[in-house]
């Protein structure tokens, strides 16, 4: 209940910046369109496998729309808490630190889903005529996979934030993680088309759960059983986050503020 | 001349301040190299696998990417705070700068001076590799192409800087500019990593007229590595960049005269 209240407060806080959000959404639509144009450019020469040119357009457009749902705050803001010493206050709250940070992030994720992902999706649907699922149940599977993808991304940001205890700065690591995510999550290239070693790296990492699994489900190219992979990673990462919080409590050195 | 000496002094002080955190400096340079390297690897993989995009091969696209990397590095090196100008307007920090006996733009350019080693090293690596491969294919002569590339980088950096100043100036009226910057900088830069031939006519036209970032990489590359336009395009592009810079500086002076502090 407490978690829900925190998430609602963060959602309301983000709601104050709706108009500023418009430009960001517009830029995101353009960047997604650039990626789609690259795929349309290469489709002049090849048929693009089981996707086809129209399928790849839908694949890229859907990934771009989902991006804002799985795009979590840099290190969940933990590095700033470490630098200012505010983390000592946050650790005293009557809620587990991971749950507290995750609840705050869920509010932002909910906001970004409604005010970024949905509008981008609708624009692409109207202008690029991206494909819609044929079976109503596909929507439910896709949303569930997307929810797990956002959670996995949140856990990874939390773990990167914890690194700030040793470095006081984790911005660059977070950005590097995001670049690796773009490469290995299937955001721009479907995983089966990655070169051999990258494909293996991707398959044994949690990254495909962030983009590839939800998008393949949406396009009805994979069955709902793939959600189990995301679920497995969500459990593993949750355990890691709880473990790291224990380390954090023991290691913490409060900075000047 | 005095301004240049002052610039070197202030930028040097800013750099020395940052070098107090040597690990952070080295780590951020390494991460920038990794981050943009992965970005190129992602798109390069697709282009290599499918044998080109919009009639351009992987090394030609690599050349465009390298030019954009240099433009970005030079812009962020000399004008990092123009890129992050919003905080000066929103938090009222500009008031302090207005009191100094130095042009505001010059003070901004000296702040957070960073050598952008990660981006420059990556740009240099991809540029060398691309020119070497294109030379081996008989498409260019590497040393002439390299010399011409310096001219393209210079005009590209002036273009990028001018756009940065124009966007920042809008902030004198709107205060919030980060989101506008996402379109004038992030979206257009992203689009110009690739040949404009992959975009539909309206978008190509936009990148050559309304937001002419196409002149930072695509247009010079048409001469340097494709030989589709004459050498005249290089001085013409530089002239266009200088005209845009003059317009941007004029707009800045007009904007700063209309500045109203937020008082916070």
From TrEMBL, chain A:
<keyword id="KW-0472">Membrane</keyword>
<protein>
    <submittedName>
        <fullName>ABC-2 type transport system permease protein</fullName>
    </submittedName>
</protein>
<feature type="domain" description="ABC-2 type transporter transmembrane">
    <location>
        <begin position="5"/>
        <end position="207"/>
    </location>
</feature>
<dbReference type="Pfam" id="PF01061">
    <property type="entry name" value="ABC2_membrane"/>
</dbReference>
<dbReference type="InterPro" id="IPR013525">
    <property type="entry name" value="ABC2_TM"/>
</dbReference>
<feature type="transmembrane region" description="Helical">
    <location>
        <begin position="225"/>
        <end position="245"/>
    </location>
</feature>
<dbReference type="GO" id="GO:0016020">
    <property type="term" value="C:membrane"/>
</dbReference>
<keyword id="KW-0812">Transmembrane</keyword>
<keyword id="KW-1133">Transmembrane helix</keyword>
<dbReference type="GO" id="GO:0140359">
    <property type="term" value="F:ABC-type transporter activity"/>
</dbReference>
<feature type="transmembrane region" description="Helical">
    <location>
        <begin position="109"/>
        <end position="127"/>
    </location>
</feature>
<feature type="transmembrane region" description="Helical">
    <location>
        <begin position="178"/>
        <end position="198"/>
    </location>
</feature>
<feature type="transmembrane region" description="Helical">
    <location>
        <begin position="139"/>
        <end position="166"/>
    </location>
</feature>
<feature type="transmembrane region" description="Helical">
    <location>
        <begin position="21"/>
        <end position="42"/>
    </location>
</feature>
TrEMBL record, chain B:
<keyword id="KW-0812">Transmembrane</keyword>
<dbReference type="InterPro" id="IPR010390">
    <property type="entry name" value="ABC-2_transporter-like"/>
</dbReference>
<feature type="transmembrane region" description="Helical">
    <location>
        <begin position="231"/>
        <end position="252"/>
    </location>
</feature>
<keyword id="KW-1133">Transmembrane helix</keyword>
<feature type="transmembrane region" description="Helical">
    <location>
        <begin position="21"/>
        <end position="41"/>
    </location>
</feature>
<protein>
    <submittedName>
        <fullName>ABC-2 type transport system permease protein</fullName>
    </submittedName>
</protein>
<dbReference type="Pfam" id="PF06182">
    <property type="entry name" value="ABC2_membrane_6"/>
</dbReference>
<feature type="transmembrane region" description="Helical">
    <location>
        <begin position="116"/>
        <end position="134"/>
    </location>
</feature>
<feature type="transmembrane region" description="Helical">
    <location>
        <begin position="47"/>
        <end position="70"/>
    </location>
</feature>
<feature type="transmembrane region" description="Helical">
    <location>
        <begin position="140"/>
        <end position="173"/>
    </location>
</feature>
<keyword id="KW-0472">Membrane</keyword>
């Amino acid at each position: 209940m407490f978690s829900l209240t925190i998430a609602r407060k963060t959602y309301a806080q983000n709601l104050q910046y709706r108009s500023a959000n418009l430009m960001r959404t517009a830029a995101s639509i353009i960047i997604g369109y650039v990626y789609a144009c690259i795929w349309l450019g290469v489709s002049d020469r090849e048929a693009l496998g089981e996707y086809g040119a129209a399928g790849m357009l839908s694949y890229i457009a859907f990934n771009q729309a989902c991006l804002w749902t799985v795009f979590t705050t840099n290190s969940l803001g933990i590095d700033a808490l470490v630098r200012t010493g505010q983390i000592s206050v946050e650790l005293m709250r009557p809620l587990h630190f991971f749950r507290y940070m995750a609840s705050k992030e869920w509010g932002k994720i909910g906001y970004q889903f409604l005010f970024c992902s949905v509008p981008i999706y609708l624009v692409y649907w109207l202008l690029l005529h991206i494909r819609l699922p044929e079976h109503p149940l596909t929507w439910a599977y896709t949303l569930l996979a997307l929810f797990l993808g956002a959670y996995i991304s949140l856990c990874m940001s939390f773990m990167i934030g914890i690194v700030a205890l040793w470095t006081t700065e984790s911005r660059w690591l977070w950005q590097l993680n995001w670049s690796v995510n773009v490469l290995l999550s299937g955001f721009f290239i479907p995983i089966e088309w990655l070169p051999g070693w990258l494909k293996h790296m991707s398959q044994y990492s949690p990254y495909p759960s962030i983009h590839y699994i939800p998008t393949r489900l949406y396009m009805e190219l994979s069955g709902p059983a793939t959600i189990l992979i995301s679920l497995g990673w969500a459990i593993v990462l949750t355990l890691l986050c709880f473990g790291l919080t224990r380390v954090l409590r023991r290691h913490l050195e409060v900075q000047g503020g | 001349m005095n301004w240049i000496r002052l610039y070197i002094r202030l930028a040097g002080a800013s750099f020395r301040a940052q070098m107090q955190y040597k690990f952070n400096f080295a780590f951020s340079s390494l991460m920038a190299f990794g981050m943009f390297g992965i970005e190129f690897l992602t798109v390069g993989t697709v282009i290599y696998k499918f044998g080109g995009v919009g009639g351009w091969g992987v090394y030609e696209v690599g050349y465009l990417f390298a030019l954009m990397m240099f433009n970005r590095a030079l812009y962020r090196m000399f004008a990092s705070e123009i890129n992050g100008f919003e905080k000066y307007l929103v938090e009222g920090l500009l008031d302090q700068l207005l009191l100094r006996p130095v042009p505001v733009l010059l003070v901004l350019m000296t702040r957070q001076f960073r050598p952008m080693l990660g981006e420059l090293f990556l740009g240099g690596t991809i540029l060398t590799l691309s020119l070497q491969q294109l030379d081996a294919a008989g498409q260019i002569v590497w040393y002439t192409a390299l010399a011409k590339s310096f001219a393209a980088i210079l005009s590209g950096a002036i273009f990028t800087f001018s756009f940065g100043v124009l966007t920042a100036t809008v902030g004198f009226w709107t205060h919030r500019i980060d989101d506008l910057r996402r379109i004038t900088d992030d979206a257009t830069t992203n689009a110009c990593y690739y040949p404009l031939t992959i975009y539909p006519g309206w978008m190509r036209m936009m990148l050559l007229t309304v937001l002419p970032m196409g002149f930072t990489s695509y247009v010079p590359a048409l001469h340097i590595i494709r030989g589709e336009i004459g050498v005249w395009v290089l001085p013409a592009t530089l002239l266009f960049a200088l005209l845009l810079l003059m317009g941007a500086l004029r707009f800045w002076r007009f904007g700063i005269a209309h500045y109203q502090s937020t008082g916070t």
